[in-house]
């Protein structure tokens, strides 16, 4: 009995084993080219949509353009990737390419933004609270898909080769890819160059190159700015106060993402300014912004150069209006309900209203409504009443209409236009719902500005009081397929450039501000104005003389009865 059983066991044990087939190893070059090809086809949908929108697929030239452009884009991405990649670095490099490409594609498809250096700078300066509002299920799905692709990249075994052989293969691959790329350029040069010349923004729709290039530009500019010596401070002179003249209290409200065409003061059909329309304000209905993002507009609007002499590096190296006012001896306070002052208030009294009001009913969920700014101004005024009054300038930096979560910018009692969009994804809402939420936020801004005017009016016995409200930029709400803001200035639509501006110079007229002719100022307000006017107009109102002051940019210079420089 034991014999056969034992023999059977021996025979079984003696059966030859089939060795497992080792997984096929890839070269670094193959992995790079495959991933780049997939990105060109599947992660550049915004670019392909824009470039092919007006072309017919029945035209052979369309297919020639498509092929040559795809090969050219692949070449422009493959060469840097090949130069950066070794067996140790290729996986991290390609993972970064995939992640940045899919996130960029999501932002461009869903919001219509263009990822140029100014947009990337704005994104890199965004605080955690703002960034969290852009984290939607669709964005997480794209990140998750990028993770799956990255996992596949990391699981592919790579071939080991002697360094001389590896170098030779790499040189030949780069040369071969370059020959194909140059051939594609020659094949479609006329069509491609014409398209790029007439639609320069298209280059910032090519991923992941747009993200990599724009991020590099931002970092290089920051290093250059850090190394640049600040421009010398210009001498300033403040006019002596007249006998019996009261100190001045000027409030500058920096709006956020409010566009002029949604202000009923400017002819909008909805009553979005019910409170301001009942106050003696001076409205400037034709005001243009200096930029299409806070990161650009804020430094620009508080600079002497503005858009007319725009030089971003020089603006960031120059003394801002806020800093100049403080140097002139005024008390200057910046109250912030946003993501900071973009360095224009460096060295000036600053207060983050959200972090200092965490227990306030105005701050549900850790994000405050703009009512905290009025509350903070009241505290400053109350504190000033305990001592001698001084010339004071207070800046209120609003959260305003910052998107995409417009419905989170106002208390529910201001939700008068319904139904409102309350979803994380704007494209999940009807356009009417988006506009309703946006207009409700405008209603709340109307209330904030009117409440500030009412508060200042209680101080007219102690101060010459005044207020200037102006938004930093506008917003797209689906027009031309665009949402949010941040388009390059040269091609930005009016929705992002036309901003509201309102002045109030006391309830008893403007005579307390150096004898300004109010009727003249109202006539001037009906003409075009710009962020460029802010720096010089404030100096004119406060009678501060400096070489940076330009009378032609001062909105009140022609309406001052004495008609003299400040």
Automatic annotation (TrEMBL):
InterPro entries: Alkaline_phosphatase_core_sf (IPR017850), EptA-like_N (IPR012549), PEA_transf_C (IPR058130), PEA_transferase (IPR040423), Sulfatase_N (IPR000917)
Record bears the keyword Zinc-finger: no
Enzyme Commission (EC) number: 2.7.-.-
Claim: Cell membrane is one of the keywords in the record: yes
Highest taxon in the source lineage: Bacteria
Name of protein: Phosphoethanolamine transferase
Annotated ranges, domain Phosphoethanolamine transferase N-terminal: 79-221
Membrane topology, from the record: Multi-pass membrane protein
Pfam families cross-referenced by the UniProt entry: EptA_B_N (PF08019), Sulfatase (PF00884)
Residues of the Sulfatase N-terminal domain: 249-544
Species assigned in the record: Hydrogenophaga bisanensis
């Amino acid at each position: 009995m034991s014999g056969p059983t034992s023999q059977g066991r021996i025979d079984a044990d003696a059966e030859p084993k089939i060795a497992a087939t080792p997984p096929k190893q890839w070269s670094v070059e193959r992995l790079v080219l495959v991933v780049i090809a997939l990105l060109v086809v599947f992660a550049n949908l915004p670019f392909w949509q824009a470039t092919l929108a007006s072309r017919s697929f029945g035209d052979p030239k369309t297919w020639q353009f498509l092929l040559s452009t795809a090969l050219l884009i692949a070449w422009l991405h493959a060469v840097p990737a090949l130069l950066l990649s070794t067996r140790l670095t290729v996986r991290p490099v390609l993972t970064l390419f995939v992640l940045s490409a899919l996130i960029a594609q999501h932002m461009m498809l869903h919001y219509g933004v263009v990822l140029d250096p100014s947009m990337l700078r704005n994104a890199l300066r965004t605080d955690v609270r703002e960034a969290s509002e852009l984290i939607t299920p669709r964005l997480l799905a794209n990140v998750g898909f990028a993770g799956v692709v990255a996992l596949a990249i990391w699981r592919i075994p790579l071939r080991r080769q002697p360094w001389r052989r590896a170098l030779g293969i790499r040189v030949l691959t780069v040369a071969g890819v370059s020959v194909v790329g140059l051939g594609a350029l020659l094949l479609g040069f006329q069509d491609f160059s014409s398209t790029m010349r007439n639609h320069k923004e298209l280059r910032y729709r090519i991923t992941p190159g747009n993200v990599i290039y724009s991020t590099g530009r931002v970092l290089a500019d920051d290093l250059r700015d850090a190394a640049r010596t600040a421009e010398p401070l210009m001498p300033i002179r403040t006019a002596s106060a007249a006998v019996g003249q009261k100190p001045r209290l000027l409030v500058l409200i920096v709006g956020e993402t409010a566009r002029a065409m949604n202000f009923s003061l400017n002819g909008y059909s909805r009553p979005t300014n019910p409170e301001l329309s009942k106050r003696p304000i001076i409205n400037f209905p034709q005001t243009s912004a200096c930029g299409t993002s806070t990161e650009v507009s804020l430094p620009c609007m508080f600079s002497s150069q503005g858009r007319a002499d725009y030089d971003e590096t020089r603006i960031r190296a120059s003394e801002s209006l806020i800093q100049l006012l403080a140097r002139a001896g005024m008390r200057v306070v910046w109250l912030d309900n946003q993501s900071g002052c973009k360095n224009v208030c460096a060295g000036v009294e600053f207060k983050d209203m959200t972090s200092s009001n965490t227990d306030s009913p105005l701050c549900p969920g850790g994000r405050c409504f703009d009512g905290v700014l009025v509350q903070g101004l009241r505290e400053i005024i109350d504190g000033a009443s305990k001592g001698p009054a001084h010339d004071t300038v207070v800046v209120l930096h609003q959260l305003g209409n910052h998107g995409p979560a417009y419905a989170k910018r106002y208390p529910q009692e201001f939700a008068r236009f319904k139904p409102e969009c309350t979803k994380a994804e704007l494209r999940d809402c009807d356009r009417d719902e988006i506009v309703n939420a946006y207009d409700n936020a405008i209603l709340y801004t109307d209330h904030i500005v009117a409440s500030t005017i009412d508060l200042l009016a209680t101080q007219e016995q102690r101060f010459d009081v005044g207020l200037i409200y102006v938004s930093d930029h506008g917003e797209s709400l689906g027009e031309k397929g665009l949402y949010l803001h941040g388009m390059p200035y040269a091609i930005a639509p009016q929705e992002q450039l036309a901003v509201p501006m309102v002045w109030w110079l006391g309830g008893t007229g403007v005579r307390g501000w150096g004898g300004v002719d109010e009727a003249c100022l109202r006539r001037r307000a009906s003409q075009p104005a710009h962020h460029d006017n802010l720096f010089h107009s404030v100096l004119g109102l406060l009678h501060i003389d400096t070489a940076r002051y330009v009378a032609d940019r001062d909105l009140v210079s022609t309406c001052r009865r004495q008609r003299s420089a400040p």
